[in-house]
Specification:
Layout lengths: L1 H24 L14 H22 L8 E2 L2 E3 L2 E3 L2 E2 L1
Antiparallel strand pairs: 1-4, 2-3
């Protein structure tokens, strides 16, 4: 679960990080003044859009086949085998 939360945080923060890197590399502003006049609403919208697109792609292309049967985790020979969808 922590992995999913961290991926979501990184996807949302990515436009902000790219904006800050661009502004500092282009020498338009000093590092202390990067966020003065920044288009925060546009960056937040881009982050939210990126997050929604990634979530939709994850939902669409992961998981088992529709109508599959779920087999829960089980112990075999002292080793826990993960659950599967067949």
């Amino acid at each position: 679960m922590l992995r999913v939360v961290l991926i979501n945080i990184v996807l949302f923060a990515l436009p902000f990080l790219l904006y800050a890197a661009y502004m500092m590399l282009a020498k338009k502003v000093a590092a202390a003044n990067v966020w003065q006049g920044a288009p925060v609403a546009w960056l937040a919208g881009a982050g939210l859009g990126l997050l929604l697109i990634a979530t939709a792609l994850l939902i669409s292309f992961s998981g088992g086949a529709p109508g599959g049967i779920y087999h829960p985790p089980r112990m075999e020979d002292g080793v826990i085998k993960p659950g599967t969808i067949d």
